[in-house]
Amino acid sequence: MAKIVLVEACSHSPFLFLQPEQWNEVRAARPPAPRNPAMSEEDNLLQHARCMAAFEELEKRLTDAAPDVLIVFGDDQSEQFDFNNFPSFAIYAGAEYEGYRTLARQGIVPGTSREWAPKTKESWVTVKGHPELAKELLVGLGVRDFDLSFMMDLPNKEHGMGHAFMRPLHYIRPAFDIPVVPVFVNCYYGPQPTAMRCYNFGRAIREVIEASPLDLRVAVLGSGGLWHTPGMPDSWIDEAFDEATLAAVRSGDAKGMAERFDAAGAEPPPEYADGAKARWIDGGTGMYAGIGGGTGETRNWIVAAGVADGHRGTVVDYVPVYASPCGMGFAYWDMG
Fold first, then answer.
1. Average pLDDT score, the chain
2. Cα separation of 336 and 125, whole Å?
């Protein structure tokens, strides 16, 4: 029988793949914002070190759990899907896929080229999938009232698998030697699934895995978040929002995490009235359906927490990186 041995969640911000000495170069390109304090280079170095230490802890936990397969919950930001067809939930069921290990494009730092990064063995990697488990999930979730899209191959092979699925493994499994089942959750573009739907999705995935006859040790990763609104000139971090999420991790209250997320996004924020800012909230669709943008990736934490529902989690660290700004979170649930 399949067994879930570990659940993890972490941020995947591009700042985690820059040198901390570059953080203020990126920050300088945005106007000052009252709610987003300036950080010294020394502060940035310390924050970067904390993030790297957190990734090391997640790497150790994953190694110790010795999984046969890793399920990653992530969102696609026009890397494989576009507005011709954008599913709420999808699973990649192919035998393998390729993608950039970290940053697909250069030019995050102002003044540098925006060209695609060269595809070398240092930047581009092939990852094994796990079609057997993926197909079991698709069938098992279908009979549990989740009708998913699926992919046997990548529509956009030139770009490769999206950053939500690739970047975290660069730190927590740098050899990329565990088969991965990518599970897509629309976090960014309205209308997204509610957080409660995501919670129930995680619960259903746990049911399917625990009912599976496959002899597998399964680990799970929720990728993204926490609070960030990339691209908005006056971006800031809502640390209280993030702390409520992390408190639910610690208590094992995945349902409460979902309820708070949905309550916080029940009404469009004041910024939504500004057409120039609305696209950073609904992804440019003109359909508001709860918290979107980068912060919407907290849904991936909620799905992961749903898989671990009832188990108390451990918050490894929370680092409010104001240079980005993004609330960088790192957590795990020991399922042993």
1. 94
2. 31
